Amino acid sequence: MTADPAPASDAGETLARLLAAQAGVLHRHEVPPALARHVRREVRARRWQRVGRDVFVSHNGELGPTAAELDGLEGFGTTTIFVTQPCGTRDTRQPGVVVHYSRFLDDLDVHPLRVPRRCRMPRSIVDAAAWASRDDRARAILLAGVQQRLVTPEQLRDALSRRGPCLRHALIVETIDDAAGGIASVPEREFAELVRAFHLPEPARQRVLQRPDGRRYLDADWAEFRLAVEVDGRGHLDVLAWDADLDRANDIVIDGRTLLRFTSYAIRHRPAVVGATLQRALIARGWGGPTVAG
């Protein structure tokens, strides 16, 4: 990637400062009149590139990542650039760029100082979840934002409240609740309904497993079959929580139980898979199988 040095003039110094401050991105109204021909020449020579009608980029390489990645979100890199523009602005689409328009885009969601100008992290993550290619990727983006300590569930809720109608709104709300509440976000009745639907023996709920260093609680426990279930609502939000979670799992296994773990999402949205897994595990440990009244 190459770019000509700015002309040695006051206008050139102004242009150089703008390019440095704005990561090489320039609106056409920011081009000093004395340098308009210089900019056109750079574009014609393909040392610069033009994005839509109004934006110039002072290199000829790939455009940079989207806002959430620029501000630290890891694990979701893509060659596609996602751009949010206010409704009524000019179309800036080009290959590799996906443009979304929003009626709800103001100073609460757009960072006043970051360059290139971009949305604040909570809005960026909510948008990315709404535009994700699959539901599981949408959940992963939201949970990763909290896990990586870039946003809080409260900030995500606030951004979503201003977002207006969007794809996956219910799933985004559910996932934010998971991030905030952990296993408490799974209603007791949903697991009970799953147990009844698959005609499983009734487990004990929140059984206390006494250990020398304190108590451990089992979300569901079939003591007769030495089988326990843990429900993960929000994943491992930090190393200490992960270590404590693994310690609890080890205690359960040491006590002689087999431990199965499911996400709250799986219990809500994949009950057939969870139920079939529990059936197989119980049968393998001596349960006679479901008895259905005929």
Topology overview:
Elements: H1 10-21, E1 25-27, H2 36-44, E2 49-51, E3 55-57, H3 67-70, E4 81-86, E5 97-102, H4 121-131, H5 135-147, H6 153-163, H7 169-181, H8 188-197, E6 204-211, E7 214-222, E8 227-232, H9 239-254, E9 258-263, H10 264-269, H11 271-284
Parallel strand pairs: 4-5, 8-9
Antiparallel strand pairs: 1-3, 2-3, 6-7, 7-8
Top keywords for this entry?
294 residues, alpha/beta, Endonuclease, Chain A, 3-stranded antiparallel sheet, 9 strands, 17% strand, disordered N terminus
Question: How many DSSP helices?
Answer: 11
Strands of the largest sheet, in order across it?
6-7-8-9
Gyration radius over CA: 27 Å
Q: Approximately how much beta-strand content do the residues carry? A: 15-25%
Termini separation: 74 Å
Number of strands: 9
- Helix coverage percent: 40-55%
N-to-C SSE series? HEHEEHEEHHHHHEEEHEHH
Average pLDDT for all residues: 76
Largest sheet descriptor: 4 strands, mixed
| Spans where pLDDT lies below 50 across 5 or more residues | 1-8
Number of domains: 3
Q: Shape from CA axes?
A: elongated
SS-based class? alpha/beta
